[in-house]
Amino acid sequence: MTDNDFPSAGHDVPATDNGEREVVPLSTVDDLTGSDRRNLLDGLEGIPATNRVGLIDASTDASTQTANVLIDESCDLALDTFVVSAQRLVDGSVLFHYGIISEVSGRIEGAEMTTDTARFAAATLPGQRFRRAEVTWIRTHPEKYLPPASGSPIWIAEDLHRRRALFVDKMDANEAIPIGLDMNNQPVFLPYSFLNGDRGAHASISGKSGVATKTSYALFLLYMLFETNNGVTARAGNPHDRALLFSVKGSDLCVIDKANNRFHADDEMGAEAMDQWEALIGTRNPAPFSDVGVFAPAQDAAPGAEAVAEISVRDRRDTHAYGWSPASFVTQGLLEFVFDDLESGQLSFIEQVVRLQLLRWAWPLAGDTQGRIVLANPDLQPGDPVPSTWESASRHWRTVKRDGLPAGDGLVVTSLDDIVEFVADRVLDSSAAFDPAWVGGVSQGTCQAFVRRLWKSTPRLRRLIRAGLTEVELEQQVSVIDVHVLHTDAQRFVVAAVLARVWSQHENSTAPGRTFVVLDELNKYAPRNSSSPIKSLLVDVAARGRSLGVILIGAQQNPSGVDRDITNNAALEVVGQIKASEASELGFLPPTMRARAQIIAPGTMITNQPLLPAPVPIRFPYPPYATRYAEVLGGADDAERAESLLDGM
After folding, report:
1. Is position 78 within any domain?
2. Residues 366-396: tens digit of each pLDDT
3. Strands (E), 489-594
């Protein structure tokens, strides 16, 4: 080795008599710092002017993924803080590393045994207390995959540096949607293009029931999209965008258009929330959801009777009683959603045959306006022959004008019971009306199994299918559909029927805007290890909804129970407190975050989005809208008046 192979020490050091030379004569710490050109940042543009909070730990490896930081004694560098480090490159330019504090630890150097702690406390043993933080790097600017310089200073990322750390500078103008506040109460953003389908779509929210606030966060996300300037601007003010919420656990979602009685400055929680809303959207007094339609199932009644909504948390006169007429049930092919176990095999086949035959036999009832139909043999019906495939028969129903048939030309159907009885007579060979064209050649055992399932479902769906009922129409910006009072089979039917209609409108390009669908308990509707028509529909929405404008915001307590084709298509993943047994499903989180998700506080969520390569914990504020009945009415007098009003209706 020659003298030229050694780096310059910055000092003119003479060789000794034997020819050896001390390359870097370190007499003071200043010598090391003065010769470390990578950490000589004077004159570089963009170096933070604030005090540093630490130094990149020189005793451990600093990589392009992580690094340890010796925290300065003068500050408290907490978990989840965004930081920036800088170094001088060989060409004289500056390279910034942006990261998030993912772990913080501390100890006393010099302590080897537990009992040394007492000796340090008694000042009988020397030692040096220190705190160390682990940083997960998110980004470098410019994009150069180099490790940070050991010993380089680190600062809290503020202003431009925080925008770079969160990739806000990479988001198109006006598309940044606040999705919560970081642990220092500063907004975290999601580019709308990763939610609306342009570059990604869908959101998946996981967490324990009751403490993980899955539904609350879904509501918050909708609020940011529809009720804030950020959301309206990102959506380009499209008045045709719609949100569809299914209230599956209670009537809580049915009062989101009412002001929250705790959202005021005299309430500790309300006052804190006002500060957080101001940090998020610039106002301390946001209003409740402004354009909401609430739908509740119609109470059981005779066909043709006036539909009355079954709801107890709001005025029934402001609530639409939903259901389906026999005509809607048959022409929309809703028979397949009556069952959840017919996805394959002969039962599925006979269901398809019966569904088609019902459509071919259906005819409007003359003079009726409540959705009654006449079931008449298609060979005896007037006009052109009815096609024998579902698509063509459905098109025939929609496009060919039909005058109503009189009641005497067939069986007048007014309820689900009429349909079930008619079908049973056609498919069971013990009936005088048995018709082989209705069974598709399947065995009578299969026909009997099919009819048994129909009989089993009829009591659970009877109230929803009768003459005089009308289905859900998404006329308001946000539509809440209450299904919690229904049997599980009926809930599944309602969710599937409504979602199928929305999906059909988007497939046929008759929906002018995007539809955001919020569905809790996704594992019930799209279970991983079984098949059903509604699961197939949800998987299709997850796969093609991005291009067709249907955005799924799904929530589940157990992500392991949801079909992976749905969760894997979500661009935004959100996790609240979750069971340890479900942690293995959170592959997008590093091990430390997965462990933390098991103990995270209620109301805190961990978000993961495509633009940021590291998960970011966030909090979201207490809402200005009521999320349950008790938050709407402030006093007992109000409650009594409400009960009196409902009793009198």
Report:
1. yes
2. 999 999 999 999 887 777 888 889 999 999 8
3. 515-519, 550-556, 572-575
Same domain, 132 and 214: no
Q: Are residues 530 and 599 in the same domain?
A: yes
DSSP structure class, residue 365? B
In terms of pTM, does the model score above 0.70? yes
Q: Could you tell me how far CA 519 lies from the centroid of its own chain?
A: 9
Contacts by residues 283-289 (CB-CB < 8 Å, ≥ 24 positions apart) = 285/624, 286/223, 286/227, 286/228, 286/624, 287/227, 287/259, 287/624, 288/256, 288/257, 288/258, 288/259, 288/260, 288/624, 288/625, 288/626, 289/223, 289/226, 289/227, 289/256, 289/257, 289/478, 289/625
Domain housing 244: 176-298+306-314+470-636
**How many C-beta atoms lie closer than 10 Å to residue 131's C-beta?**
17
Neighbours of 79 (CB within 10 A): 15
- Return the beta strands (E) in 110-175 as ranges: 128-141, 153-156
End residue of a domain, out of 153, 170, 187: 170
Say whether pLDDT at 465 is over 60. yes
pLDDT in tens, 177-210: 999 999 889 999 999 999 999 999 999 999 887 7
Say whether both 527 and 446 belong to one domain.
no
Residues 494 and 401 in one domain: no
Cα–Cα distance list, 449 to 338, 487, 521 (Å): 14, 21, 29
Tokens of 384: 């052109």
Of 152, 170, 188, the position where a domain reaches its end is 170
**Are 453 and 497 members of one domain?**
no
Residue type, 375: L
Give the CA radius of gyration of the chain. 33
Structural domain total, the chain: 3
**Residue 493 belongs to what H/E stretch?**
helix 488-507
Spatial contact of 620 and 603, defined as CB atoms under 8 Å apart: yes
Cβ atoms 135, 69 nearer than 8 A: yes
For residue 45, tell me if it sits in a domain.
no
